[in-house]
Amino acid sequence: MTSTHRRILVGVAGGIAAYKACHLIRDFKEHGDDVRVVPTEAALNFVGAATFEALSGNPVSTTVFDAVDEVQHVALGQQADAVVIAPATADLIARLACGRADDLLTASVLVATCPIVLAPAMHTEMWLNPATQDNVATLRRRGITVMEPAHGRLTGKDTGAGRLPEPSQIAEFARTVIDGHTVPFDWKGRKVVVSAGGTQENLDPVRFLGNRSSGRQGFALAEIAAQRGADVTIVAGDTEDLPVPSGAEVVRVTSTRDMEAAMNEHSADADIVIMAAAVADYRPAHVADSKMKKGAADENLARLELVENPDILKGLVSRRASGEINEDAVIVGFAAETGDATTSVLEYAQQKFERKGCDVLMANEVGEGKVFGQSTSAGWILRRDTEPVVVEHGSKQAVAAQILDAVNEILPM
Ligand code: CTP
């Protein structure tokens, strides 16, 4: 998993979302990181220095003229393992793009050679303004990771692109980048469809057959794909109450057949199709209209008759072959395996890869306390004509970044 006790410089610019930086600081602290907060002068109009000092446990200054004997304007940037700026306002982004060093935050960024992540927040017009977009492109070209802002309610009555992503999303995304998984902004104009969570098959009005999937891996894939600039659709079955990634749209479904219909529809013009959902392989042959009762009259409950569900992934591979969905789409599957006395997890996954016919397959060992419902995962990425690549134990975002890198290598131009 991720290493702890990193020195993280949290920059805060002057926007109404500055209060959310408090949650971000707390998130890093809870992960064992040493946090130094460097606000701009304007940020202190929104949140006081005392709050940042109390939350980080470190002194706070804004100008290059504080702690001059320690050459702070150079030391902070040099010593940081990562710089995470949230919110990054249009003004701060412009100053960074110009290479200014007129306060402690911009000076620290100029000195830093560690990963730098910016989470912008501003009004939609400011975000879409060509000046801001050019500045963001300049920073990305220089290797700074600039997150896509969320869509939603902004200050005042307006809604649109420009909202700060949730602090937990920023923190998890930043950790992925800090751990060395670059997330380039190279999928603008690409369409990604990803299924997430478990499907549910009704037995009667109050019962269903389901599974333990949380949907976290599917949402993490959606998050990283959206941060690469793609338009993302999540076809979500039963999932935990996860924040919707910035730039992604969610289509809710319940049963396997609902999921199949939604995946077929949304994959028609997709460049990348990912089946991360835990699909119920069988459904009850009969769904009762009223609640099934215990006892003789309701032996249905004791002897459940099941019928097989369609295999959505296999269906998508055949639809691609027949031209019903984009013939150039890259199709990704998962394999949830426990292994047994005769066959290992990897061997079962390789057999499944052949059976399913997809282009990339992420093999996971599942079981008690492993993968399902967890925030971490591990396994192997399988691709045609290459050896399996080991995916070390890490957050589902980190795993997602590695899967999407594998996809990118075979994605047609
Ligand atoms: N999948 C699917 N439709 C199904 C079952 C599975 O599209 N009816 C997809 C899953 O989303 C995953 C892959 O197929 O991408 C493998 O799923 P998994 O549950 O590991 O395997 P199964 O196909 O269900 O086979 P088994 O239960 O025998 O391991």
Strand arrangement across the biggest beta sheet: 12-11-8-13-16-17-18-19
Overall outline: elongated
How much is the average pLDDT?
94
* Approximate strand percentage: 15-25%
The tally of strands reads 19
Low-confidence stretches: none
Mind summarizing the main beta sheet?
Answer: 8 strands, mixed
Helix content: 25-40%
Number of helices: 14
Quickly give the structural class: alpha/beta
Distance from N terminus to C terminus (CA atoms, Å) equals: 33 Å
Ligands, deduplicated? cytidine-5'-triphosphate
Q: Give Rg in angstroms.
A: 24 Å
EC number: 4.1.1.36, 6.3.2.5
Protein name: Coenzyme A biosynthesis bifunctional protein CoaBC
Pfam families: DFP, Flavoprotein
Catalytic activity: N-[(R)-4-phosphopantothenoyl]-L-cysteine + H(+) = (R)-4'-phosphopantetheine + CO2; (R)-4'-phosphopantothenate + L-cysteine + CTP = N-[(R)-4-phosphopantothenoyl]-L-cysteine + CMP + diphosphate + H(+)
Based on the model shown, name its key terms.
single chain, eight-stranded mixed β-sheet, five-stranded parallel β-sheet, 14 helices, 413 residues, 33% helix, alpha/beta, binds cytidine-5'-triphosphate
Structure description:
- The protein is an alpha/beta fold.
- It has helices spanning 20-30, 49-56, 72-79, 90-98, 104-111, 124-128, 130-141, 167-178, 216-227, 256-267, 299-302, 312-321, 345-356, 396-410, and strands at 7-12, 34-39, 82-88, 116-120, 145-146, 150-153, 159-163, 191-196, 201-202, 208-209, 231-236, 248-252, 272-275, 282-284, 306-308, 330-337, 360-365, 376-383, 389-395.
- Strand 6 (150-153) and strand 7 (159-163) form a beta hairpin.
- Cytidine-5'-triphosphate binds next to helix 12, strand 16 and helix 13.
- Residues 256, 275, 277, 279, 281, 309, 311-313, 333-336, 352, 356 line the site of cytidine-5'-triphosphate (CTP).
- It catalyses: N-[(R)-4-phosphopantothenoyl]-L-cysteine + H(+) = (R)-4'-phosphopantetheine + CO2; (R)-4'-phosphopantothenate + L-cysteine + CTP = N-[(R)-4-phosphopantothenoyl]-L-cysteine + CMP + diphosphate + H(+).
- One of its GO terms (molecular function) is phosphopantothenoylcysteine decarboxylase activity.
- This is Coenzyme A biosynthesis bifunctional protein CoaBC.
